[in-house]
Amino acid sequence: MHVTMRRLHETRTPVPDEVDLAGINLNLLVALDALLREAHVTRAAARVGLTQSAMSHALAQLRELLGDALLIRGRGGMVLTPRAEQLTAPLRRGLVELQRALRSEPAFEPATATRRFTVATRDYFGSVLLPSALELLGREAPGVDLSVLHVENSTYPALLESGEVDLTVVTPPVESGPGLRQQKLFTEDFVCVVRKGHPKVRRGMDLDTYLELSHVLISPRGDGVGAVDVALAQRGLPPRRIALRVPYFLIAPLVVTRSDHVLTAPRRLIAAFSEAYPLQVFPPPLPVRPFDMIQVWHERFDGDPAHQWLRGLVARAVGAAHPVSRNTRSSRRVRRTTAS
Questions:
Q1: Please, what is the average pLDDT of the chain?
Q2: What CA–CA distance (Å, rounded) separates 310 from 332?
């Protein structure tokens, strides 16, 4: 197998500057898209409803057509060649645009629409806002489905541009990228939370008690400091003891219910948990810088009626999820900002 792949590189034929689309079976482009996304013949075949042998035959045709191996064997399985990596995003964009052009439904009617939207976000947004979003979907668009993905900030610009992800809901700083636009949904502040019956916290949380306690830090990347640590350093105060770091928002409040740790977390998150769990909630004993929550999309979908409806749904779900005033600015191009 290694020899065969090497020969494909060594004996590849030149590719003309312009490819005659009239001579290409366009189904091969669908197969190529699946192969580039899966980097696995069997999974690519399942994605587009082909047999493994049919996908293998399509791969052979594509290799001959493009003069490149496209997929080669690596240590952990098949990997894309540099040429294949260059093709991935443009091909995905082209197929998405072709699907939109051929869609028979000229206008988006939520009440009768049957389609799926994909939103990329973290579990914080999902836990506090998705219930309201699903309630709105059930009432206004019962045929519309929603997929929620967890992606790293560095990957979502390409996913938005290709149309594989419709919308991402994140906190700044955001990854810069050509054609990305954003809309502020709300500003979130922090609260402190301990379990009810905590032996050291009765009627309030003063700074001395706060610094004496062991802390839980929500750190999606697993390192660095939080907004509290920045606030302490700015005031020349001693650092707190971070006894536990967790990457997920949903774990932290549950840990607090069974320990004597204190958690400083977004207000909306704690509001959702305090209704169901025995928690005491206090304002932080020192000012902690709030953060913004924004939705980001690609400008190619600015005027798309379905996408406009989706962005409006997310904005309304924010208001329905918690009775706080929203400060929603008009959309603007994304610029890189500094972390809080």
A1: 83
A2: 17
User: Where do the domains of the chain lie?
Assistant: 24-100, 111-180+297-321, 190-289
E strand segments, the chain? 71-74, 77-80, 115-120, 144-149, 167-170, 180-188, 190-195, 214-218, 241-246, 262-266, 279-282, 291-298, 332-333
Nearest to 135 by CA among 324, 323, 318: 318
Pairwise CA distance, residues 137 & 3, whole Å? 54
Q: What percent of the chain has pLDDT over 90?
A: 51
Query: Considering only CA atoms, which of 226, 204, 206, 230 is closest in space to residue 282?
Result: 204
Q: Reply yes or no on domain 24-100 having CATH 1.10.10.10.
A: yes
Alpha-carbon torsion, ordered 200, 206, 209, 210, to 10 deg? 110
Share of the chain above pLDDT 70, in %: 84
Question: Under CATH, to which class is 111-180+297-321 assigned?
Answer: alpha beta
Report pLDDT digits (tens) over 57-110: 999 999 988 899 999 988 888 899 999 999 988 898 888 878 777 765 557 899
List of residues 6+ apart from 13 with CB closer than 8 A: 64, 67
pLDDT surpassing 50 at residue 196: yes
